[in-house]
Hints:
- The chain has 449 residues and is α/β, with parallel strands linked by helices.
- The chain contains twelve helices and 19 strands.
- The strands form four sheets. It has a six-stranded parallel β-sheet with strand order 2-1-3-4-5-6, with helices on both faces. A six-stranded parallel β-sheet has the order 7-10-11-12-13-14. A five-stranded mixed beta barrel has the order 15-16-17-19-18.
- Helix 3 (86-98) links the parallel strand 4 and strand 5 (104-106).
- The chain is globular, with a radius of gyration of 22 Å.
Amino acid sequence: MKQNNTKVHIISLGCSKNLVDSEVMGGLLSQSGMQLVNRRELADIVIVNTCAFINPAKEEALEEILQLAHEKKTGSHPFRLVVSGCLAQRYGRKLLAEIPEVDLFIGTGEVGNIALHLSKLDRPKTKKAAIITKPDFLMTSQHARVLSSTSVSTYLKISDGCSNCCTYCVIPAIRGKARSRNPADILQEAAMLATRGIKEIIITGQDTTAYGRDLPDHPQLSDLLTDMAEIRGIKWIRLLYAHPTHTTAAMMKSIAKNKRICRYIDLPIQHIDDDILKSMNRKATSSHIKKIIAQAREIIPDVALRTSIIVGFPGETQKRFDRLLDFIVDTKFDHLGVFPYSREEGTKAALLSSRISEAEKERRRDIIMNEQAAISNKINQGLIGSIQEVLIEGKSDRSDYSYGGRCRRQAPEIDGVTYVKGKQAKTGSMVQCKIIDADDYDLFARIID
């Protein structure tokens, strides 16, 4: 492809699924001849790929857009401003009138057409536009993603969209219904990532355990995991976003029997009170959630379990909150994230009465996080003296430890890190380490021969 002089900078906000979309757009723009640049002050076009899942994500996206709009209006460096992703899909047409500095809004269905849209921006009579189409884009292995040059781990999106229709969630409206990729196509991408030096593949999607249900021959996630573990070069495979309703014993057995698959399951339960679960349309009862957790710990005895929960959902009385708190204390998740309920327009939950104040939501969040800090600390203290394989991700930000990395129990960005001291280690290398100390969320280790 002939090189052109258009320089593009992409800012990716939000979740891992959005990051993959940004990498796909980067690949398509590079193939079209445009140049990707790391600094926005060098760019002719700046793309902000946005999230709009909950209010804090929308606020972050709007803050970034308004800052860029200000720079565009007052700065000496002229550039075109493009907003893509979930915020654009949801509010693009409305924002077009409100933020005139944005040249183009494109929705989640237009990821595959990014080069075409950007090529039209330089035409003299091009008007500002919001191109919001059906959210049905699904990447394939033919999309050459532009990964970070220092990547040693990366996300692999096995599906897009969601058909669960939880009452608090806007994802089906923004991302469309669940669409699974063909297993052969996923395995081809995994093999290509391995040849690019990727050591850890993190499987992502809105609901990874619903994988294959929409495809004619209903391929199983357990088989996909087993087949992926046979690809040469991949050291770790990690699973995120496993819905309790769709999590199977077969999937757990696949994790247990394959050394390359991290004994780690991200199982967002959202709540444990049956009335709240029903009101959320989670389709999983408290007894089923408890059964899945017990099953995971029986099939994979050393499994690290992560979950996420929502506090302050409409109807969460003190008694129902106490039930959730007791469950957290009893279950002892290795990792846990808490989100105060965010009332999203267009969702069924937004119409529910018995709302809880923001201050009370934050209070409940703090109570659970304080309990979790103590739980995590005790689990981490129990790891002192153990030998862990650690993926070195780069130099440490601490003077007393040379490197920062993660062991199999830790997912990037959402869990703690392992700080490592000892002999020289390369970024991307796997080293055997002895855990010598721990705090609430991080581990401290020394490289052993």
